[in-house]
């Protein structure tokens, strides 16, 4: 019973709440882009790429995707399902897969076909299990096989709370607790 | 937190040739890692107005 409630909360109740909360942060904040010219120019020319950012800096990333044709590599774990559902509110698709122990990426065929179709694919090179701030070889191998460039990207906020895993998110305690019980962002 | 200054920091694209040797691939991996670390430090600095 308790499990069912948690499941319903995570899959149906939390995603729109989180979407609303992140949008609220965006609407009340000042967003600044630095050195975005190359990426924007590539988008204007119809080129896509592999977007790469640390797992700890993923919260606001949906707002970096100006072009709106993107997919995110999300773990097959239950928490991943929650993130995938939240992404749909941002009009972002998901590819379910993750890093294997030796550092290669699963679901390679799907990622390659989406890149070929012109989607930008977002991958966190250190996530979700870490080690933190270490790039695993899978993403480089993917770029080599697909001939698509890797676009490094990150963000920071003037008011933030860095949690254990370095997630640069900052929110009132209530929400923080909400995130924690959902185990959402591997905090 | 709401009412923040949020700084998105973009890097330069990294290309890896299809015929890259394992050594070249490894150096690209390190390049990506150092780039991301540097960008993140810089984004933190700008966001905090330092």
Task: Assign the structural class of chain A, choosing from mainly alpha, mainly beta, alpha/beta, alpha+beta, or little secondary structure.
Answer: alpha/beta
Q: How many H/I helical runs of chain A? A: 6
Second rung of CATH, namely the architecture of chain A = 3-Layer(aba) Sandwich
Task: Quote the distance from N terminus to C terminus of chain B.
Answer: 19 Å
Whole-number average pLDDT of chain B?
Answer: 93
Question: In percent, how helical is the residue content of chain A?
Answer: 40-55%
What's the quaternary structure here?
heterodimer
Give me the count of strands of chain A: 8
Radius of gyration of chain A: 16 Å
Average pLDDT for all residues of chain A: 84
Largest interface: A-B, 51 and 38 residues
- CATH topology name of chain A: Rossmann fold
* Strand tally of chain B: 1
Helicity level of chain B: 40-55%
Characterise the protein shown here.
The complex is a heterodimer of chains A (187) and B (50). Chain A contains six helices and eight strands, in the order αβαββαβαβαβββα. Chain A is of the alpha/beta class and 187 residues long. Chain A has a single domain, classed as Rossmann fold (3-Layer(aba) Sandwich), CATH 3.40.50. In chain A, strand 3, helix 3 and strand 4 form a beta-alpha-beta unit. The two termini of chain A are 25 Å apart. Chain B has 50 residues and is α+β, with helices and mostly antiparallel strands. Chain B has a domain of 30 residues. Chain B is elongated, with a radius of gyration of 15 Å. At the A-B interface, helix 1, strand 1, helix 2, helix 5 and strand 6 of A face strand 1 and helix 1 of B.
Keywords:
heterodimer, A: 187 residues, alpha/beta, Rossmann fold, two-stranded antiparallel sheet, 8 strands, globular, disordered C terminus, B: 50 residues, alpha+beta, 1 helix
Summarize the structure.
Chain A is an alpha/beta fold.
List the helices and strands and how they pair.
The complex is a heterodimer of chains A (187) and B (50).
Chain A: H1 2-28, E1 30-34, H2 37-44, E2 50-52, E3 70-74, H3 78-89, E4 93-96, H4 108-116, E5 120-123, H5 137-146, E6 150-157, E7 161-162, E8 168-169, H6 173-182
Parallel strand pairs in A: 2-5, 2-6, 3-4, 3-5
Antiparallel strand pairs in A: 7-8
Chain B: E1 5-10, H1 22-47
